[in-house]
Amino acid sequence: MAVFFKDFERDIDSFFKKNYIGANKGQFRLESIRKPVDGQIYLNNLFEGNTFSLNMHYDSRFHGLSSKLSLFSNGSVGSSIAWKYVLGAFQNAIEFREQFDMHNIAGFKAELSHRSAADVVAIESRHTFSPKAVAKSEVGISCAVPNIAGLSVGCGMNFDSAAASNMSPMKYGAVYKAFSKSLVAVTADQKGDYSVGIRASLRDLVSNAYDACGILQVINRSNKVAVNLGASTACPFSGSTLCAKTDLKGKYGISVSRALNDVARFSVGFEGDVRAGLKLPTESFTFSVVTE
Predict the structure, then answer these.
(1) b/e 207-241 (16+ beta carbons within 10 angstroms → b)
(2) Contact partners, residue 106, CB within 8 Å, separation at least 6
(3) Which tens digit of pLDDT belongs to each residue from 215-262?
(4) Residue 284 has pLDDT above 50, yes or no
(5) Beta-carbon neighbour count of residue 116 at 10 Å?
(6) How many angstroms separate the CA atoms of 68 and 247, rounded?
(7) What CATH number has the domain bearing residue 275?
(8) How far is CA 121 from the centre of its chain?
């Protein structure tokens, strides 16, 4: 099945952006993750820094529905509802998200997205509505290349329907997933900007209980090139994971997590700069505890 165009770079970007929580600067995080209960309301709570949120979920597999309502202690409210259905040869998903501040109802943000995928083609669109931007949209289309398993090519663009001139350059790309985790992703636009991401997994080459990955990302924006390097390893027996990243300027990040008796996950992460000395940057030290 074809990979959605917006997901071409998702795995590489997620590694460098989501595994490291140094930007939170020492916030404590406690999250309950309850497994979905079909046809019943279930709760997941989150405490992070000075913010507490109550998350209410309701899923119905029979109707293809999943929904979520989030109430934050700072007055923000978020909600989402998604519907998955089959129409002909296409598997479809429609999702609506909304977020607003109880202290400023006019400052809302709503998002409507749609995805359709068949064996050889995937189509997606996302439209954002807010007082600052009317119908800001993203569209993309991709297809699987015949006779080359794991290869998808596609294109996409962003635009604001309130002003036809606010169209971003057309973006093109390809992603090759020949194995379960290893991949190569390349995207470029009409301005000459491009990005290349490579992830190689040891488990795809050698049967090993300890999975190890190496990640390389090269980004060119306005003729400025950035190179990111990363590595990760995971042990399925202990539930432990280790991630590390760096760039050519010496900025680095490390994240370590471990499952605790299958009911919680403890993680600690930090970011720093070798030019400031090889020491623990306490101002960016972060740890979290996740209960499951």
Answers:
(1) eeeebebebebebeeeeeeeebebebebeeeeebb
(2) 131
(3) 999 999 988 999 999 999 988 777 788 999 999 988 888 888 777 766
(4) no
(5) 19
(6) 37
(7) 2.40.160.10
(8) 22
pLDDT of residue 184: 97
Q: What tokens does 177 get?
A: 């997933």
CB 274 within 8 Å of CB 291:
no
Question: How many separate domains does the chain show?
Answer: 1
Cα–Cα distance, 8 to 144 (Å, whole number): 12
DSSP characters over 70-92: EEETTSEEEEEEEEEEEETTEEE
Q: Measured between alpha carbons, how far is 232 from 203 in angstroms, rounded to an integer?
A: 12
Q: What backbone torsions phi and psi does residue 244 show, to the nearest 5 degrees?
A: -145, 145
**Coil/strand/helix, residue 204:** helix
What's the domain range around 97? 5-291
pTM listed for this prediction: 0.80
Q: Is residue 222 within 8 Å of 200, Cβ to Cβ?
A: no
